[in-house]
Amino acid sequence: MRAVRGLAGCGGMLDWPAFFLPMSVAMLPACQLFGTLGCHLCELAEAQLMPLVAAGLQVEVVDIVERAEWVERYGVRIPVLLRLDSEAELGWPFDTAQAAAFLGLAALTE
């Protein structure tokens, strides 16, 4: 059973088994936002994603300092939004509409 996570910073992380979620939420792409503490651009990226999170998008916030390969890969590019299904990356800067289009969720911003 897979668990889904909400965006950190919006009241904490909640784990819910996927079968408890409405079909539209359970079918949204899983994604990760790579950043680090004290990164003001990462905070701006989180703010751009909040309307999508409010609509049901699940985002795992990942601190790049947890793994050396993340620091090497993303260190000078954070924040980076990663789709787990396709491994496609959206680098900063992006706004809510661009993130929604990247995730195939344009209808959520209309």
Automatic annotation (TrEMBL):
It holds the Pfam family Glrx-like. Signal peptide: none annotated. InterPro entries: Glutaredoxin-like (IPR008554), Glutaredoxin-like_YDR286C (IPR052565), Thioredoxin-like_sf (IPR036249). This is Glutaredoxin-like domain. It comes from Geopseudomonas guangdongensis.
